[in-house]
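Appendix B. One record, verbatim.
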Amino acid sequence: MHDFESDFSLGEYEDLYDLNLLAVVLEQMSETEKNLAAAYCNANGLKDIQSILNTCMQIDDFFYVEIDVNTWGSKEEKLGYAVVDELDSDLKRTLEQCKVGEGLSAYEYFDFEKYGQDIAINQGYFATDEIFLFYNSDINPKLYTIQEIKEQLNDTRLNKT
């Protein structure tokens, strides 16, 4: 029997020791990191175990923003808000300081959807409804060999008996 469930598109006949290595790597990652790695692999067609492991090992090199799917607005509008609120504090401060009428700032009038559309077109892509990856998030899917990853982890559970 070759049935399995995974957020990654794994091959049907992957080596059991390599799958155990992936399990150890995933065990050390947060849910957000796992979702990000799976989204990156799926969006970029990475299906071999070495590429998936390398993606997981380089997760800190990703440049992304999480989008709250439970709020109102289009994905692009949510992206615009997320980038201004989380990544571009200078823009946010400028918009808040620029007064438009009594007690209102330019922040209330800013077109977050158009801003998010521009970012989506020019700077990255939606890997999932919750994650926007920037193009400068490219990693090297062959940076480490499977043996090098195993040695970095130094986990006794990975020893072949």
